Amino acid sequence: MKRIPCMEAVVAVLESEGVDTVFGIPGAAILPLYAALRGSSVRHVTVRHEEGGTHAADGWARVTGNVGVCIGTSGPAGTNMITGLYTALADSIPIICVTGQAPRAKLHQEAFQAVDIVEIARPVTKWAVQLKEPAQAPWVFREAFRVARSGRPGPVLVDLPIDVQRGTCLYDRDLDAPLPVEAPRPLPGAVRAAVDLLRRARRPLILAGGGVVIADAAGELRDLAEHLQVPVQVTLMGKGAFPEDHQLFAGMAGVQTQTRWGNAAFLESDLVLAVGARFGDRHTGDLETYRRGRRFVHVDIEPTQIGRVFEPDLGVVGHARLTLAAMAAEARRSTPARGPGRWPKRVAELRRTLLRRDDFDDVPIKPPRVFREINDFFGPDTTFVTAIGLYQIWSGQFQKTYLPRRYLVCGQAGPLGWEVPAAMGVKCAHPERRVVAVAGDYSFQFLMEEIAVAAQYRIPFVIVMINNEYLGLIRQAEIPYDMNYAVDLHYGEGGIDHVKLMEAFGCPARRVERPGDIRDALAWASAASERERLPVLVEVMVEREANAAMGPSLDAVTEFEPPAGQRLALAVDWSD
């Protein structure tokens, strides 16, 4: 074994774990790690804010399925990472945040930028640890990767005192490799019971959550659904787990991001097989309404998720891909392949007759028209990222997704500003892909400094900004209070000029005010982005008072009227 600087061993671990890009900001307390990075194959992207770095690592991780890495120095660098750690924990995204730290002997003396970041980060990580000895360095990082990947994936923080970083350790990269990650298999009896419930139900649904995407289980999901002819719904985090042009696609149920026909189909169902879904409150709404009249089978890799929100009729612990594969095999063994029956045809009727309008020609532009143009222009391999607000809700309601890891959204934590750095992370991971960030005007302003990063490193992507010059979601939430307080973002005639802001960063931008101009602007932006190798903005000015359809429960949704001539009888006789 050769004795080497312990930070060189850490970088060797990063390389062997498949990390090709890290995002961070150097500082005095983390320079030994940066010195080791300098001679490695790992690309470093210098961000403008540590939160932006965590979101970039998050986007990289979501689209690759690997562990993203963000690096910062001591003190405020670590505290700036907390929002990104929380976002990753909430959405089950594996990232590692590395922080520098004051010398061990100074930690109790209120040294400059010395803060107990381990204790601060502990509630928003799977594991937060401070390296105590140089000899531990490669092994702590091996464990960090294993923890981040295992079970329900999530974030890890590793804190590195500067004196530890300067130490050496015995290490041979040829004798080391990533630690194995166990993928739990479901119990055969539980699989048989779940398939039996699915076979016997008259109006079953499969609910695919983000766990199906994380587990790369889209193929197994489709096998099971097609063999038994069971319609499939997705949660917001599960978008892309099942192609939305498939005849068995049953939309999305929920109180915010939902389809009208998805809500109707859910309310008519009598059994829900939920795989890798956590029953978030924006999906379920009122639990009494959500549960009434139907049974639930809950499949999850994390045992403590089962029963957390409500008690299912059957819980199954297992990796989503292995569990769906086992269920598909059991279904083939016990049941001949089914043809389309009354229930799938009913779901298709709901889909045909309960569409939302998106063909508005109004000026100012109505938001659904923006998403109609996005759907029509961009191909199925485009990767979209979006954050939180009315534009996320409209995106969830109107955007179509066909492939896994092509629709990325910060679903549970919902930090504003997520989409621009996340888009950078996606593009760094897949330079060949077209990447589109759908953003609101206020969210864009949260971390717009990261545009400078994309410009510096020539990271091209398109930003479609839905600008209503409001804190739109809060304005809509305030309506019952008969107030419109502190939500106006309209600063003078025309508001903030985002086009000029982009140009100040050296990036092209265009503003659109008429619906007929949206498609040409998207085509221009896509071409300009790849030609100039820069982020390009299309700012779409939409109706200021536009609201998104949502309600307190999934049976109380008001929205845009269906296309003319379409009618629906919600009461159906299933007696035969």
Features:
single chain, 576 residues, alpha/beta, Rossmann fold, 6-stranded parallel β-sheet, 24 helices, 38% helix, disordered C terminus, flavin adenine dinucleotide binding
- How many distinct helices? 24
Overall number of structural domains: 3
Percent strand: 15-25%
> How does the helix and strand content classify structurally?
alpha/beta
Indicate the low-confidence ranges by residue numbers: 558-576
Average pLDDT for all residues:
91
CATH level 4 superfamily of the largest domain: Thiamin diphosphate (ThDP)-binding fold, Pyr/PP domains
Tell me the CATH architecture of the largest domain: 3-Layer(aba) Sandwich
CATH domain class of the largest domain? Alpha Beta
Largest sheet: 6 strands, parallel
Strand order of the largest sheet: 3-2-4-5-7-6
CA-to-CA gap between the ends? Answer: 74 Å
**What's the shape?**
globular
Report on this structure:
Pfam families: TPP_enzyme_C, TPP_enzyme_M, TPP_enzyme_N. This is Tartronate-semialdehyde synthase. Keywords: Lyase, Thiamine pyrophosphate. InterPro entries: DHS-like_NAD/FAD-binding_dom (IPR029035), THDP-binding (IPR029061), Thiamin_PyroP_enz_cen_dom (IPR012000), Thiamin_PyroP_enz_TPP-bd_dom (IPR012001), TPP_enz (IPR045229), TPP_enzyme_TPP-bd (IPR011766). The protein folds into 3 domains: 174 residues, Rossmann fold; 166 residues, Rossmann fold (3-Layer(aba) Sandwich), CATH 3.40.50.1220; 175 residues, Thiamin diphosphate (ThDP)-binding fold, Pyr/PP domains (Rossmann fold). The protein starts with a strand and ends in a 35-residue tail after the last strand. Strand 2, helix 2 and strand 3 form a beta-alpha-beta unit. The protein is built from 24 helices and 19 strands. 53% of the residues are buried. It has 576 residues and is α/β, with parallel strands linked by helices. A 6-stranded parallel beta sheet has the order 3-2-4-5-7-6, sandwiched between helices. Strands 15-14-16-17-19-18 form a 6-stranded parallel beta sheet, sandwiched between helices. Strands 10-9-11-12-13 form a 5-stranded parallel beta sheet. The chain is globular.
